[in-house]
Design brief:
Elements: H1 2-27, H2 37-47, H3 49-53, H4 62-80, H5 86-93, H6 98-116, H7 121-129, H8 143-153, H9 171-200, H10 208-215, H11 238-245, H12 284-290, H13 299-311, H14 322-333, E1 355-358, E2 367-372, E3 375-379
Antiparallel strand pairs: 1-3, 2-3
């Protein structure tokens, strides 16, 4: 299936060109406007993503899967104009890794051939050609091996109907219900994979993926990871905040992995240039909160957030973690990024359009832009 992989990447590249052309034409059309990242994402999903998923269940080589995943990551980064950490970009946009998606497709294929349509010709041929040998005795290039491996990963019993209470339902309804069930299991595996990557690298030097997980910890606990993060569901400040969360800004030192001479700099050695000769890691926490040269620019926004917390009798600003502070500041400062030049003496104006309220106490007409625990960041009706 190597040729299928090559063709999928080729067609996806053509779709990417089409998506960029449509986005560009709308950007410079006098009767239209520039697309938001969510609109670009929807355009990319409809034109490019189907080429990666069409024959995914029949591609068994891990090398081919990795090539397709790399091509998918680059394609989405180019369409969204966000060249940060791919792990964070996939998680924020609700696009699961192709390996997990392939497991879902294989489990669906097994459900169709053995449960919902066992009397069709493909199902009869599948039963005839595949033996009942145990999984370790099957060759890794066979479809039966990969179907059994996928069902084992999703803990699906091959001998029984996973949806016995829907036996009398139409076939399409049963297949849709099984797909939704597999997607819930896939969300659990995906979340575990994200946090395991952070734990695996805990003893090593930190990286952009670990930094993203710490900032987006609350968002990653949403029930449906297939949906974009909360801040991508509003038309305000999507792109700057997406770049901040996925480590793709040009004003935080740890997001810049190349030096002026195009030499790669390890994450732990990306020091704050304003604090030299002190070797302080220029991550989000240091730049936005602790840097004596940069953090004063964020103080007006912090003062506004503290005022909102007191007005609604919520927990004090000091009770939240540093990464919750980064999340809050990213939401309210997104429309002012990148920050003014460092040699300028101007500071950011106070932010008054964002309010913090408890869940369920949002004023009528307001719109959510973020959730942290029992708190909700909203835009009042006059700014929506």
């Amino acid at each position: 299936m190597h040729l299928a992989t090559v063709e999928a990447i080729r067609h996806a590249s053509q779709g990417q060109v089409l998506a960029l052309a449509v986005s560009y034409s709308l950007r410079y059309d006098k009767n239209s406007y520039q697309l938001t990242p969510t609109q670009n994402l929807g355009l990319w999903k409809s034109i490019v993503l189907p080429h990666f998923l069409q024959n995914l269940r029949y591609i068994h080589s891990d090398t081919d899967i990795k090539k397709m995943q790399t091509s998918l990551n680059l394609s989405m980064a180019r369409v969204l104009h966000v060249y940060g950490d791919h792990t964070g970009l996939l998680a924020d946009t609700g696009i699961p890794p192709l390996q997990l998606t392939r497991y879902v497709h294989l489990a669906q294929l097994h459900f169709r051939l053995n449960i919902t349509r066992p009397d069709t010709l493909p199902a009869l041929l599948f039963k005839r050609l595949n033996s009942s040998l145990p999984l370790p005795n099957l060759h890794t290039s066979t479809l039966d091996y990969h179907i059994r491996y996928a069902t084992h990963a999703f803990k699906v019993d091959l001998q029984t109907d996973p949806l016995p209470d829907m036996t009398l339902q139409p076939t399409k309804n049963r297949e849709r219900a099984f797909r939704n069930k597999m997607r819930k299991t896939m969300i659990t595996l995906w979340s575990g994979q994200l946090y395991n990557d952070v734990c695996t690298h805990a003893l090593r030097s930190p990286g952009r993926a670990a930094s993203y997980i710490r900032i987006a910890h609350t968002d990653l606990q949403r029930l449906d990871l297939f949906k974009p993060a909360h801040f991508l569901r509003i038309p305000h400040n999507q792109l700057p905040l997406l770049r901040l969360r996925t480590q793709a800004t040009n004003y935080i030192p740890t997001h810049l992995h190349l030096s002026n001479t195009d030499r790669y700099i390890p994450y732990a050695e990306r020091y704050c240039l304003l604090c030299l000769p002190l070797q302080m890691a220029g991550d989000e926490t240091h730049t936005l909160l602790h840097c004596p040269h940069f953090s004063p620019r964020t103080q007006p926004a912090i003062d506004t957030l503290m005022l909102n917390l007191r007005q609604f009798d919520l927990w004090a600003w000091a009770t939240y973690t540093f990464f919750s502070w980064i999340f809050f500041l990213g939401l309210v400062l997104a429309d002012r990024s990148p920050f003014p030049p460092l040699e300028s003496n101007s500071i950011l104006p106070p932010v008054t359009a964002v309010l913090i309220t408890p869940k369920g106490a949002e004023p009528p007409g307001s719109r959510r832009i973020g959730v942290i625990g029992a708190l909700v960041l909203i835009l009042p009706s006059e700014t929506v």
